Amino acid sequence: MTHHDISAASSSPVPLGGGAVPKWAAVVDDTLVPLPRRRLRSRDILAQAGAQGILIRDYNQRADLPLEPDLEIDLAAGNVFRTADLCSAPPPNGHPDAPAKLAFVADDSWEVTTDPLQTLESLKGLFDLPEDAEVLRDYESPIDEPIASGVPVQFEDGPVFRILLKSITVKVNNNSVRFTKRRVTGLEIKQTAIEQAVAIETGFVLYPVKPQGGLGKAIGDTEIVTLRACDEFRCVAPDDNS
User: Fold this and answer.
1) Contacts of 239 (CB under 8 A, 6+ apart)
2) Angstrom distance (rounded) from CA 214 to CA 197
3) Judging by beta carbons within 10 Å of its beta carbon (0-12, 13-18, 19+), is residue 43 exposed, middle or buried?
């Protein structure tokens, strides 16, 4: 029984000077997996994800498409997958009647859509970026490609991007604190707040403030947080839960 990859054939983008090509990645079982190229065998994607069983491409429908281990997968046709053991994998359903899910990646975070055609403005909206953010397509090269306003951004040309920020402002204990990157550790939030004269210590406990009020789960020093404008945090001494 053969399970077919329904990828439409398409040419790779013209590399930048020096032969650089776009970076590729997949999301497997809700985990980001960097990959070396656009086309790989199903078994190789599983290996890079540290997973076993069978790879299943995720479509915007109830039934998904299992992929045989030796099948060459074109990530441009959908880079969101889940896994299942061989006994519980769904039967093949021929040609899915819904688009495959596409994961655009920016600074190691991802957002899923089914639209392969984006713009600078829609990517900013997808990742909730400030207006002054600069978006660059990430290449296997020191030279990345800035995305210009009004220029179509095709998924098949590479879904991995870097974000350059002039600044992003959040609040720590009701004090405005500015950052120049979106992904920071809990310790970096505390250290940056201290540098900007917020009266806390690195040994304090950091909590996110929920949109409706109240505190979320404590953020560990090594935990990665993706910042968004207007995020709020409370940082208190370990014996102070107020």
Assistant:
1) none
2) 24
3) middle
